[in-house]
Structure formats: structure tokens, C-alpha cells
Recover the amino acids of this structure.
């Protein structure tokens, strides 16, 4: 699913990407909870203007109500001022908290 990337690159409108992603769950295939994490990740990627592969971890953290610890400081900093900021912590900050 490249809707998130195509929306970020301006190849399709963000609204169109959202419509396409909403249609995925209506496809005549069996969806497991793991597969719907991918749909959630693309929705987050479009909303946050971040790569979907980063947002898979964020979607999963939300799904299991966990904190996401990442070595990707750019990703954590980009989300710090969003509603997801409390979910993401850098590995460096996590290590400091544990001392």
C-alpha cells in the first residue's frame, strides 16, 4: 500500500488517500488484527506526514497501549508536539529514565 507515500509526495491528494485506505477494510478478503495495523499506520503516515514504515510501530504501540522506544530521534522529535508525543520516547531518553 503506497497511498501514504503517494500522498506525502503529492502524487495523490491526502483526501483521496484517506478514501482509498477506508476502502481497504471493505475488500472481500479476511483481515486479521495484524493487517489492520497496516491500515492504521498508513492513516497515521498521511496525517503526520511521516513514512508508513515508521508509523507501523506507532500504530502497534497504540494498539497494545504501550510506549514506543526508538533510536530514531528525528521521528520522536517530529511527534513530540503532536497527540502522539507521549507515546514515543528516544532510546537515549529511555536509558536515562532507567538509570
Amino acid at each position: 500500500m503506497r497511498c501514504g507515500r503517494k500522498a506525502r509526495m503529492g502524487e495523490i491528494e491526502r483526501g483521496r488517500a484517506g478514501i482509498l485506505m477506508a476502502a481497504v477494510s471493505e475488500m472481500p478478503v479476511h483481515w486479521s488484527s495484524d493487517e489492520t495495523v497496516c491500515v492504521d499506520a498508513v492513516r497515521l503516515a498521511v496525517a503526520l506526514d511521516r513514512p508508513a514504515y515508521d508509523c507501523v510501530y506507532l500504530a502497534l504501540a497504540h494498539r497494545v497501549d504501550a510506549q514506543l522506544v526508538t533510536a530514531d530521534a528525528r521521528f520522536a522529535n517530529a511527534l513530540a508536539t503532536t497527540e502522539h508525543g507521549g507515546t514515543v520516547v528516544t532510546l537515549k531518553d529511555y536509558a536515562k529514565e532507567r538509570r
